[in-house]
Amino acid sequence: MNCEQTEELLSLYAGRDLDQKRAILVTEHLQTCAACTRVAGEYREYIQLTEQFAPPVFSEAVYAGIRQRVLREIRTDAMAPVWSQTIASLFRSRLTWAIAGVLLIVVSMFAIYFIVNRGNVEQLASKPPANVQPGTKERFNSGPQDNTRAEFPPRVKLTGVPQFQRRKRSRDTLADRTNTVAAKSPDATFITHNVSPQPSSIPEQPNSAASIKPLRVEIQTKNPMIRIIWFVQPETKHVIPASKGT
Amino acid sequence: MELGRRITLNAAERASDMALALDVPLPVNALTPDQTSLTLLIERAAAGDTEAFERIMIHSQQRVMAMTWRMLGNEADARDASQEVFLRVYKYLKRFRQDQDFFAWLYGITVNVCRVSLKKRQNHSNRFVPLGEGTEGVAFKVTAEHADAESIVAQAQERALIAKAIAALPFKERASIVLRDMEGFSTEEVARIMKSSATTVRSQISSARKKIRIYCRQQLRRAGQEKAR
Predict the structure, then answer these.
(1) Model-wide pTM > 0.80
(2) What is the pLDDT of residues A61-90, one digit of tens each?
(3) Which residues of A touch B49 (CB under 8 A)?
(4) What ipTM, to 2 d.p.?
(5) Shared-domain flag, residues B29 and B109
(6) Is B160 part of any domain?
(7) Which residues numbered 30-89 in B keep a CB inside 8 Å of some CB on A?
(8) Is the CB of residue B69 less than 8 Å from the CB of residue B78?
């Protein structure tokens, strides 16, 4: 071990912080090197001085003052309400503020989105369809407790269907259906109207089934997003052409 | 003492307990209570017993004050830091595990408080007050063999020099050298207190001692040159 290597270790050697293996090597070098021995002596002296470096003797009054202040603080903290500590701790933490800020922004965005969309839905619900005939929209006002027949929703007024067919249909199917819907959703709106026939390249025959306009039936449920729509094809009388031979 | 709780103490424990109860100032080593009684005090203090906590403070106040003074360099800051240390001890006492060394844990808190205190001081652009500056009578241990006036003056000058050299050290090196050379902890214990490895602490101690030596040599050389003029 040369002087340079030894000098690196002398500060630890002088304070007995070196492991045994290296300490033996340094001791061997010091036995042969006067310069390194002098440096080691200097280190020992400074370490000894450091070890003797004691703080001033503080009076008992100093310690008593510290204790009293600490105990006073502890008692004040113990008496303080818990919510104030919680708020104070929230103010201390930057991370909490950041999280709270992000949450507030997210909630605000959801709220704005919800309000905007709700307005659109209400507009759509209140706006009557373009092909609905005026006067055919009726609203059921009977509540769930009104189960008497007198308060059942009025029958649907069907237009554009022959009288005999209209009666039969309303007795057999529509009346049952409307009664069922009305009982389940008291605020449902029942709308009926004729649907204009789809434009077709095939010329319509006056007596064919296509010439009879289909009936569009709509039920607006309590939920403005749900509207039940179906088309009723009026029954047609099929005429069997007579054979020429008979 | 809690009612209905049977505590059996031996003579030494009783003496220590009595001395603490009577608030008798004892030497640092004498104030160290038996591990059993300290454990009991910690348990009671953690449960909110301020009386027990006051006794823990009496046990440890000299150590804490000495450490903060050595780290911060003046009495006013040391007092404030000690107060903060005890407040933190009370706050985190519930987290203290009984298998830990209480004083190592206490020194860990003290080092952290001193770090915060020094940082605050730097933020307020207040320069560090070197150890011993502005304090009357830094209590170096003067032995009887150095009783003559000249040697006392020489020793005081040397120690003042070392005080300044320590004050000029970076925080970690300063904390390591204070804990190792002044408080007498082993390198492994210092590492545990500083939450570091023994190798790192050894390196910090080595670096600190080299810097102290270089600083002292420079100052002595300068003083010699001034005398020659």
Answers:
(1) no
(2) 999 999 999 999 888 877 766 666 677 666
(3) none
(4) 0.72
(5) yes
(6) yes
(7) 48, 50, 53-54, 57-58, 61-62, 65-66, 69-70, 75, 78-79, 82-83, 86-87
(8) yes
